[in-house]
Specification:
The protein is built from 18 helices and four strands. It is mainly α.
Length: 572
């Protein structure tokens, strides 16, 4: 039958094992405790954390029919000492590297916007077709995390980052050399699929390195790359297209990707504390293949949406990304004619307003999220992951919708001119950096041990909506005007605020209910497998009895127990 939530782990150095290892119990406390049922893991001492090879936890807790590889509880408590494996200066270097890497896929998503007419002319097509490619780029950014998230949990962060960095580099070269629209189409989509792993793995690495009360600040710095990229891309693309070929955009991207690949190889250690591949020690043959396929199955990420709090926070994030891309995508088409601008570079200057807002928000947004967490810990005496999202509510519910409404209707009615447009774009950029660190860090806090899969599900939702926003924004503005479309976006962001609020209020209760449901389901599966085994043994005994001439007692045989009987037995 299922055992208790006490889980024993064996620390491993290089290669996963070594002499002098010890077994630790989960009885000690940790700073990551969140008031829920937890499965704890204990670390090995790390005397040389600055040498680049970090201790990992190798566990055989999955071995045997009673302990499945798939975790049952949503919370696996990670001990406090894990976060001290790297010194502070190494952590800062890694955050800077990951922020740079995460800059690449988003800047690639928008850098071509300023060059859309030029790309369309070279391939003898229309701007709508090129915008469709951009929308599909966002779609592949949404599909990518559900693939890379499980892989990074199984094989680790470092190998996934290096592989995708090399792939992103190769696809950038392919895009720059594209001889026709089909090649441009394919390489752009592959670039999106590879590049999104930087964003996913970067967030997971921050969860590996920083305590929950420190993650907001680190996430704020990391998110600066993912948010400044989309704002800076069109500005850089506008300058390049004004003076040279659009292909130079992708040669520049190639150079940046090369820096990311080299930096990842030399500067990024393996930060994950427990690789899921360690759970397969003792498996062999088809059983190992079957379990491995389950561990890397993208459906693992989607299945987490049975937790209502995770799905709703995904919608909250999606509302912000929808708003961001529906603002950035049409700037050249909307503002250039409105303010009589004639060159791509002039239109590109408008992207600097939200970009500067994102940069300013980097310094304070994440710190404010950590401040709110500490305030509620002091108030409650315990850390509840959902408390972090309180820091995002006023910015999502008031400031961003207000800025979007002012932007849309001032442009629609030609009120306020360029200064008002720049101010509201800047303010909504600052406000977004108060929201994203809170939502992203919540994904890392709420299910320790599965942070990569949780954040993968969140990114999948947000970039699917980004794809929709990129695809519909121009036709919608042409059909109903920028004012009414901005009104729809503002209502969506406000709806995302409501999703975050209800997750704060009932998230813990939802998590506990789904955990209980998963435990019952796992118990039922284990008992059914045992009963099947017992039934098979009975048949063997029955056949043996017939051969020896003994009476047939099979009609009196029943399974040892049933799931329902076992549950009643446990309740008693």
């Amino acid at each position: 039958m299922l055992e208790s939530n006490v889980t024993h782990f064996q620390p491993a150095g290089r290669g996963g094992q070594g002499p002098g290892t010890h077994t630790y119990s989960s009885s000690s406390s940790s700073s990551t405790h969140s008031g829920d049922t937890t499965e704890s893991i204990r670390p090995a001492p790390r005397p040389t954390a600055d040498e680049g090879e970090l201790d990992r936890c190798s566990t055989h807790h999955s071995l045997g029919p009673d302990m499945p590889v798939e975790p049952i509880s949503s919370v696996i408590e990670v001990p406090d000492e894990v976060y001290d494996r790297l010194p502070a200066h190494r952590k800062l270097i890694i955050v800077f590297l990951l922020s740079f890497c995460s800059f690449l896929a988003p800047i690639s998503s928008t850098s071509v916007l300023a060059a859309t007419p030029e790309v369309a002319a070279e391939f003898a097509t229309t701007g709508s077709i090129i915008n469709l490619v951009n929308a599909l780029y966002m779609l592949f950014m949404g599909l990518s995390p559900i693939f890379w998230g499980p892989l990074s949990q199984v094989y680790g962060r470092r190998i996934v980052t290096i592989i995708t960095a090399v792939g992103f580099l190769a696809c950038s070269i392919g895009t720059a050399l594209s001889p026709n629209l089909a090649a441009f189409f394919v390489f752009r989509l592959l670039t999106a699929f590879e590049g999104t792993s930087f964003i996913l793995v970067g967030a997971s690495v921050i969860g590996d390195m920083y305590r929950p009360t420190e993650r907001g600040t680190a996430t704020g710095w990391f998110m600066s790359g993912t948010l400044v990229g989309p704002a800076l891309g069109p500005f850089i693309g506008g300058i390049i297209v004004t003076y040279t070929s659009w292909r130079v955009i992708f040669w520049l991207q190639t150079g940046l990707a090369g820096v990311a690949a080299i930096g990842s190889y030399f500067l990024l250690p393996e930060t994950i504390y427990h690789k899921r591949i360690d759970d397969l020690v003792g498996y062999s043959g088809t059983a190992k293949v079957k379990v491995m396929l389950g561990l890397i199955n993208p459906w693992r990420v989607i299945r987490l949406w049975e937790y209502p709090n995770l799905f709703l926070t995904g919608l909250s994030s999606a509302s912000l990304v929808w708003n961001m891309y529906s603002l950035l995508t049409p700037i050249r088409y909307v503002l250039n004619p409105r303010y009589n601008l004639t060159t791509p570079m002039q239109g590109g200057l408008f992207y600097l307003a939200p970009g500067c807002g994102y940069l300013l928000g980097t310094f304070i947004g994440g710190r404010y999220a950590d401040y709110v967490v500490k305030k509620y810990i002091k108030k409650r005496g315990i850390r509840i992951p959902e408390d972090r999202m309180y820091s995002a509510l006023p910015f999502m519910g008031i400031i961003i919708p207000g800025c979007v409404l002012i932007y849309g209707w001032s442009v629609e009615k030609d009120v306020g001119g360029i200064p008002l447009t720049v101010v509201v774009l800047f303010l909504q950029g600052v406000a977004q950096l108060f929201c994203f660190p809170s939502l992203n860090t919540y994904c890392l806090d709420v299910m320790p041990g599965r942070g990569a899969e949780v954040i993968a599900g969140n990114y999948a939702i947000r970039y699917l909506f980004a794809c929709a926003g990129t695809a519909v924004v121009l036709p919608a503005i042409n059909g109903i005007g920028v004012g009414w479309f901005s009104t729809i976006s503002a209502l969506f962001v406000f709806g995302g605020t409501v999703c975050a609020f209800v997750s704060i209020k009932w998230g813990k209760e939802w998590r506990q209910k789904v955990d209980a449901k998963r435990k019952r389901r796992a118990m039922r599966k284990v008992l059914e497998e045992k009963n099947d085994d017992l039934t098979g043994d009975d048949k063997v005994h029955e056949n043996a009895g017939r051969i020896m001439g003994s009476p047939d007692n099979s009609s009196r045989r029943e399974p040892l127990t049933t799931p329902e009987a076992h549950e009643k037995e446990v309740e008693v």
